[in-house]
Amino acid sequence: MATSKLFSCLLVQSMLLLLVLDAANAELKVGFYSKACPNAEKIVKEVMDQVMSVAPSLSGPLLRMHFHDCFVRGCDGSVLLNDTVNLPEKIATPNLSLRGFTTIDRVKAALEKACPGIVSCSDTLALVARDVVVAMGGPGYDVETGRRDGNVSNAFETRGNLLPGTANFTELKSLWQAKGLDVKDLVALSGGHTLGTSHCSSFSDRLYNFSGTGRADPSMDPNYVARLKLKCKPNDNTTLAELDPGSVRTFDGQYFTLVAKRRGLLTSDAALLVDSESKAYVLQFTTKGSTFFKDFGDSMVKMGRIGVLTGNSGSIRKVCYKNN
Ligand code: HEM
């Protein structure tokens, strides 16, 4: 009897140890929720298909939201938090133009209904980003899941981590390197600008006062400058211009054709032509045999690994805009 008690005690102990080790080694993986919430990805897709059918213009903002989440404190859902002890990331300048937070709440509510407390907000955002890309005709790719949510969100941490549209190639490359991303990732993910719009204020220096010269950016096609000037007057903070005019709601490689023709809208888009390595990727992505779709999916997966919390770290928020 004593031996069997000792045996079961040891068994329980070693099982607990295995569980702890498992949690400590926990990593992201495709299908993380296959047992705990088998329909998780299906639920996200269903809600997103509904949202995209009535509000396709949210595709750009929602894709961008995942990027902004990952570049500040890692992909931990911190961009979604409303009020923490700090002023949250949401109120920082680069995030003021984000939209679609209520869509995330809607998706998360559907997930909570099916599987309470299982699917993190950071994973919800990563899945939503993939599903909007697919809904707009872009590549499907396997999203790794298993992220947990952070409980800190600090507006000041966006500084230096979310660069403005005026960023040059050196700034972009070094930030991306610091995040573990290379030039190929930079070019492929900039292809996210195939969707959505930009405020005139994010690029109007290129039209009216490039580098304080009082003239337009000489690296921008002058015909394009003239057309944009009709739309964007100096000091206009409200008008929106399409990042990829003509196919703003289609996820395709047209963005790279425009960049190659010196019609990239932001300085950071035009910067991809400055460096020979990034230029070669831009040109590759304009060809018939372009690997853009495959490379975009690969780079999204890589970006989705930045600074993630897994295992026992972080939590699973019930509601994405507040800590439990
Ligand atoms: C390479 C560095 C990047 C810079 C400097 C940058 C900067 C910007 C800026 C300034 C805007 C316009 C914001 C506004 O004025 O409303 C914008 C929009 C956008 N960005 Fe980026 N971005 C970068 C990379 C990315 C990446 C990696 C993605 C996603 C994979 C992305 C997705 C988007 C989308 C979809 C929009 C349109 C949003 C909308 O329609 O509201 N960007 N970006």
Automatic annotation (TrEMBL):
It comes from Punica granatum. GO terms for molecular function: heme binding; lactoperoxidase activity; metal ion binding. Belongs to the peroxidase family. Ascorbate peroxidase subfamily. Belongs to the peroxidase family. Classical plant (class III) peroxidase subfamily. The keyword Iron applies. Removal of H(2)O(2), oxidation of toxic reductants, biosynthesis and degradation of lignin, suberization, auxin catabolism, response to environmental stresses such as wounding, pathogen attack and oxidative stress. These functions might be dependent on each isozyme/isoform in each plant tissue. Residues 1-26 form the signal peptide. Its main location: secreted. It comes from the Eukaryota. Ca(2+) 1 binds at residues 69, 72, 74, 76, 78, 89. Keywords: Calcium, Disulfide bond, Glycoprotein, Heme, Hydrogen peroxide, Iron, Metal-binding, Oxidoreductase, Peroxidase, Secreted, Signal. This is Peroxidase. The record marks 64 as: Transition state stabilizer. The lineage of its organism: Eukaryota, Viridiplantae, Streptophyta, Embryophyta, Tracheophyta. It catalyses: 2 a phenolic donor + H2O2 = 2 a phenolic radical donor + 2 H2O. GO terms for cellular component: extracellular region.
